[in-house]
Amino acid sequence: MYNAAFSYFISTLIYNMKIRYFFLIILLSAAIQQVSAQDTLRVMQYNLMFYGLYTDFCTAENNNVEAKDEYLKTITGYYQPDIFAVNELGRGAHNLTRLRDNVFNVDGNDHFEYATYTNTGNGWFANGLFYDSRKFGLYEEAIVNTYIRDINLYTLYYKSDDLAHTQDTVFLTLVLAHLKAGNSTSDQQDRLTMIRNVMNYLGDNNYTGNVMFLGDFNMKSSYEQAYQQLLYHPNEDIRFYDPIGVEGVWGNNRDMAPYHTQSPRTGSHPCFVTGGLDDRYDIILASEEVMKGHRGLQYVQDSYLVPGQDGNRYNQSLIDPPNFSAPEEIIYAMYNMSDHLPVMLELQTVDFITSSVRDENIYRISIANPVKDNLIIHLENTHDALLQVDLFRVDGLWIDNYAVDGMHSPLLINVESLPPGVYLLRFLFASSYMLTKKIIKL
């Protein structure tokens, strides 16, 4: 009787331990996926050419807004942007609502939202921003008012899976501009003034980190002073980079054919600019942090794309000669939608780093995950002494801190007594730089 009871007790204990171990493995697997999962995010910019605005030359017959909705729904449905930035949105906030409800939130979808409409100069058209609210939230908006038209700054935050637990997120600021058109000296000076205004604003208000500058630049070459201000500004913290590094004369240059975004039509048209594709007006630039992935988002190599552009369009239309770069329905939708082509790129989420100084590339910390007893940390930093390591739960509760000896590597921290789960390590350097890493304790 005693042996039977004891055997039953042991078998029950083992069974319960197996069940707990099973659920622990499930929990840790989920945690590992949560920590290591990466999300790919698509950003698209598009000049919509008098969307929702009728004039004596752009009329309901030759630029019908209902037809444009269908074309744009076809294009965005195929390319699936998570962020959609537009130029030449007709005057009035109702055009933002119309785009959201007729193009994005259709066929059972309801997750796209838009940023605030602005048009401080009451011009013919404005900028607009749409975003997938499942992935992004709108954190902050600002306007750099130039004497020509608004330049809009939209700061989004990324809704990571563990946002509710960590209260830690990644921010992305999009600077959306429609610069002055024209090729005269005064037109170029106007563009330079617009760029100087916005660059001064970025510097004065410390807009560093994940920043992208996008829109219709209306420039013929990378040598224009306004463009040089973007790429070689004296303040290195706010410089931008061309993801595809295309420098030189863009306009009317056959060698630049793969990058041209205006105009998809030849012949003549009362509303559309025609003459065939021969200008690189629409561009997306990115900060160094985006290019290198220092702040949680990184440009995906070779993802920069001019949809519909196959490099065989110099002074030709989008549809003649035949274009096989996308399905025929998509090519014809872009041909009829606008006198510009969209541009797009992809970003990928990466390990998030917080910092109080700019030069993150001198800090490299690697941790072997998951960890059971001893946490081994390798430092690849020769410029700054590490002072302290703090341990937190993912809900932000501080657990312990560890004093360390300068730049000694590797570091060994005993975590045997920690319950299994996901934790945060915060590294503090002598320069006040702080870096956060996640660990998984088995």
Give a structural overview.
- With 442 residues, the chain is α+β, with helices and mostly antiparallel strands.
- It folds into three domains: 1-37; 40-349, Deoxyribonuclease I, Chain A, CATH 3.60.10.10; 360-441, Immunoglobulins (Immunoglobulin-like).
- The chain has eight helices and 19 strands.
- The protein has helices at 2-36, 65-79, 94-104, 163-166, 185-204, 225-231, 288-292, 328-337, and strands at 40-51, 83-90, 112-114, 125-132, 136-145, 150-158, 171-178, 211-216, 240-241, 282-287, 297-299, 343-349, 365-367, 374-379, 386-393, 398-403, 411-414, 421-429, 434-441.
- The longest helix is centred in the first third of the chain and has 35 residues, at 2-36.
- It is elongated, with a radius of gyration of 26 Å.
- The two termini are 39 Å apart.
Short précis:
With 442 residues, the protein is an alpha+beta fold.
Key phrases:
Deoxyribonuclease I, Chain A; 6-stranded mixed sheet; 442 residues; alpha+beta
* Largest pleated sheet: 6 strands, mixed
CATH first level of the largest domain: Alpha Beta
Question: Termini separation (Å)?
Answer: 39 Å
CATH architectural name of the largest domain: 4-Layer Sandwich
- Enumerate the strands of the largest sheet in spatial order, edge to edge or round the barrel: 3-4-2-1-12-11
Tell me the count of domains.
3
DSSP strand content: 25-35%
Q: Identify the quaternary structure here.
A: single chain
What would you report as the Rg, rounded to the nearest angstrom? 26 Å
Name the average pLDDT. 86
**CATH homologous superfamily classification of the largest domain:** Endonuclease/exonuclease/phosphatase
Work out the helicity level: 10-25%
Counted beta strands: 19
Coarse shape: elongated
CATH topology of the largest domain, what is it called? Deoxyribonuclease I, Chain A
pLDDT < 50 stretches: 17-36, 352-361
Helix and strand pattern: HEHEHEEEEHEHEHEEHEHEEEEEEEE
The tally of helices reads 8
